[in-house]
Amino acid sequence: MRRFKMFFLLLILSAGFSANLHAQDKKEDDDEVLRVDTQLVDVPVEITDRSGKPILNLKQSNFVVYEDGKRQELTDFSATSAPFEVALLLDTSGSARSELPLIQRAAENFINSLRPGDRVSIISFGTDRAGGKATAVSEVLVALTDDKIKLKNVLKTISVSNGTPYYDGLIQVVERVFSGQPEEKFRGRRALVALTDGVDSTSVGGFDEVREMFGQAGIVSYFIQVDTRDFFEENLLGDCQSAMRFSAAQIRRYYRTFYPKSKIEKISGFCQLGDFERLDISKRLYELADVEMQSMAQISGGKVFPVADLSEARAAFYKVALEIGTKYSLGYYPSNEKRDGNYRKIKVELKGVPAGVTVRAREGYTAPKN
Fold this sequence. Notes:
Layout: H1 2-37, E1 41-48, E2 63-67, E3 70-72, E4 74-78, E5 85-90, H2 100-113, E6 119-128, E7 135-145, H3 148-155, H4 166-177, E8 190-196, H5 207-217, E9 220-226, H6 229-234, H7 248-258, H8 275-300, E10 303-307, H9 313-324, E11 327-332, E12 343-350, E13 358-361, E14 364-366
Parallel strand pairs: 5-6, 5-8, 8-9, 9-10
Antiparallel strand pairs: 1-11, 1-13, 2-3, 2-12, 4-11, 6-7, 12-14
Helix pairs in contact: 2-3, 2-9, 4-5, 5-8
């Protein structure tokens, strides 16, 4: 009887211990499911002093991040020495035809300016002549690599296009270049660097789609904005057969964006446009491109570098390389776990640093939907 009681007691203790282990395993599994299901938010940050010089020696404890006014717990931190992944988009349409060597040399200097460990992919525009019809296309010429010799050889192959599939190129940055999850060392350290005037002419996709995709991906956006407006407008007026034309897509975008409710007759053919209408369309499309670039750069913590022409691109690329090399990256799992598709504002503050510093960081993101 005594042995039976002892056996029974051991059986109860064993069952309790097993149940406790099962509950602990279940809790850990639940935590893991919750962590996987909750989106890690990456926040690239640039910190400069009063003179505009980057501050490079900060630690995770110097940063405080708020989402919609609520403080978040930082779980990831990368200092400025960590490597970056860069999607380099080169606009080789329009006025670039005669200046392709300038683009190639400027891009090569940019690649040389990057640090060991940084990886680059190159996207450019070309012409697809399938079916006897010339169509402008965006092409990912090389996937992410740190092989600078390979990158320079690819630059030699870029060609010009008969249109500007700019939005399509940006979509490819998200869908192809940065389609997979980053390695741990690149988490929160992905950037777009685009040399372009930002005026799209032939894309299937649109800016609203681009903005949403980039906002969710957390890619910091830099633009070297080339001023091609004077060149374009010099060749825009006069005989419609010899003039530089708008595409039908650009004319539709003009009316849809700036005169959506107008009752005036909407012209679809370039030759039906007078000189006044041509100049107004040009002005509006260049203004739209500027607003779009400024918006993408600001919300992501990036920057726009305007250049008068491609001869200034080399210096602008050098500035971008310096910016990339001085970025911190923060990461947190949001306390708001709702998958509601709403936009959430991010604010980064510093503590334990001298007064007068400037913070430039990702300003927000769109939460995923169920």
